[in-house]
Known about the structure:
Blueprint: H1 2-19, E1 28-34, E2 47-55, E3 60-68, E4 73-80, E5 89-92, E6 100-104, H2 107-115, E7 120-126, E8 134-137, E9 139-140
Amino acid sequence: MRRLIVCIAAAAVLAPAALALPRAMHPELGATLLGKNEVPKGPPAAHGIVNLNLKSGPGQVCWTFQLAGVSKPFAAHIHKGRAGVSGPVFIALGKTFKAKGCTSAPKKQIEAVESNPNAFYVNVHNAKFPNGIVRGQLVAGMVHM
């Protein structure tokens, strides 16, 4: 009986702390990139994926792109915005496009993306489609082509 009382007391003390935990953080994110997702639409044959590794402690975002049907990309960004709506650049993925790389970003911005990935999208730009050729909403976990 005494153990039961101790367990109930412990649960009563720990329950509020468990409810106060912050949202789950997602340091590994991905997006399926499609021309039809871009605003305005990019070419239907353009597609790809991006996988991100977010490190809020050191303030670092690393990425790997795999693209097809995208010629001469010059930039890629994480934007704040829901599907179908153009949003502002939130984190630039380098100064020029690289298929793989890392950049620094403010901790608060990284944490915002980690805590609510679907509120952000990634897109890639080229000369023919300066507003974006492919785009995809971020999701928790890695994606595969």
